[in-house]
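Hi R.,

Here's the chain you asked about this morning:
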Amino acid sequence: MRGLLGRYLHRREAWRAKIAKLRYLLFSTAFESAGRRGSIGSGVRFYGDLTIEFGNRVAIRDGCRFGGAGTLKVGDGTSINADCILTALERIEIGRDVMLAPWVYVLDVDHRYEDRNVPITKQGYEVSPVVIGDGVWIGTGAVITKGVTIGVGAIIGAGSVVTQDIPPYTIAAGIPARVIKERPLGDAAR
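And here is the predicted structure, written out as tokens:
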């Protein structure tokens, strides 16, 4: 019985992968540019007048939401996992080989709130681009706010709220996120 179930599950996943690649081909006709061999999971939605530039082998998992009127640029080999939300009124740039875990929220916009006499909904927005460097890993449920640059190879802990720049090859966590240590050098670098 186990062998039969295993074969069934393997076939089902193979079909899901083929459908995700076909979905990418269909969606990508509306993109500014789309690399080869990408995939888009089920339930992914694009809102607004977003300009999208995807590199090769970009994988978008089930339930992600993308919106805004700015530009979203995603580099080769990047994976955006299930239920992530990315909102770009100006620009969000994600490098190569980046991993966004499920439920990550990245936005380049925030509400203005300076005048107590005016409802926040009527005060407009502050917008500033977000840049995520190559090889970054962002943990589950992290929030990346407007104007932030995350350096190459950095790691952002699960549930963190990033409100300021994070240097390359560091590990940051917390609310607000703070650098807690540097990533160690690998054996090849020693």
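One quick note: Helices lie at 2-28.

Cheers,
M.
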